[in-house]
Q: What sequence folds into this?
């Protein structure tokens, strides 16, 4: 476990912070961002067997069990993805696009979302 916290971080004032959670590659990373200063004021990293272990980690955790955040973002990382130009995407064909290089396991589903215009890959 890795835990870094700025002296100015006050978890009791969750509304002043954005909580970012990344679960990928056997790790869970948490970052609290001070919204007004756009500064990361807390960062923690944990080993995690799978995304299914996240609820157990959240139980009683100082940050994950807290409510009232200004914003919460969760990202689940994996190696099975593809980028397609938006005009070529047909809703409902997500699994077909992904099967070109990844066989979906029975518990996996394919989904699609558009990258925001500010994304560096948006022009692809």
A:
């Amino acid at each position: 476990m890795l835990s870094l916290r700025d002296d100015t971080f006050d978890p009791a004032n969750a509304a002043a912070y954005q909580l970012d959670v990344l679960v990928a590659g056997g790790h869970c990373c948490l970052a609290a961002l001070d919204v007004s200063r756009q500064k990361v004021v807390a960062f923690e990293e944990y080993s995690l067997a799978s995304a299914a272990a996240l609820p157990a980690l959240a139980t009683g955790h100082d940050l994950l069990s807290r409510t009232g955040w200004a914003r919460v973002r969760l990202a689940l990382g994996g190696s099975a993805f593809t980028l397609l130009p938006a005009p070529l995407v047909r809703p409902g064909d997500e699994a077909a696009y992904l099967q070109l290089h990844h066989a979906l396991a029975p518990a996996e589903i394919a989904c699609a979302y558009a990258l925001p215009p500010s994304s560096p890959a948006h022009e692809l």
Notes: The beta strands are 2-5, 17-24, 27-34, 39-47, 71-76. The longest helix spans residues 54-58.
